[in-house]
Amino acid sequence: MSMTDLLHAEDIKKAVGAFTAAESFDHKKFFQMVGLKKKSPDDVKKVFHILDKDKSGFIEEEELGFILKGFLPDARDLTTKETKTLLAAGDKDGDGKIGADEFSVLVAES
Q: Where is the EF-hand domain (predicted)?
């Protein structure tokens, strides 16, 4: 399954394009623009599993840095500051990574 099976390619392109500048990433706006906020909880979990590149059941800090690439392969990496901000927003239990349920809450709060 690919991201475009779940989200519109044009929405992905626009959302990634809106955050091309370093330090501009805003996960709340991004999830809204990409159409993830409107998706069912099941579809949000499918997106989580696509972003969980190592299939560990979690999106670790390193994977978060490449989150935009999970939506569009030629997108930029997040900066260290953006990555840490996203991790802090999503890591509700403080274990240093984002699980599927935490990701669902992160999207729902967008």
A: 39-74, 78-110
- 62 secondary structure, DSSP code: H
Please state at what angle helix 100-108 crosses helix 80-90, rounded to 10 degrees.
100
Q: Give the bridge partners for 97, in sequence order.
A: 60
**d(C-alpha 60, C-alpha 102), whole Å:** 12
Closest CA to 106 of 21, 66, 47: 47
- 1: closest CA among 48, 63, 39? 48
Alpha-carbon span 72 to 30, nearest angstrom: 13
Q: Could you identify the residue written with the tokens 């699980």?
A: 99
- Alpha carbon distances (Å) from 39 to 6, 22, 66: 8, 28, 22
What would the pLDDT profile of 6-47 be if each residue is shown by its tens digit? Answer: 999 999 999 999 999 999 999 999 999 999 999 999 999 999
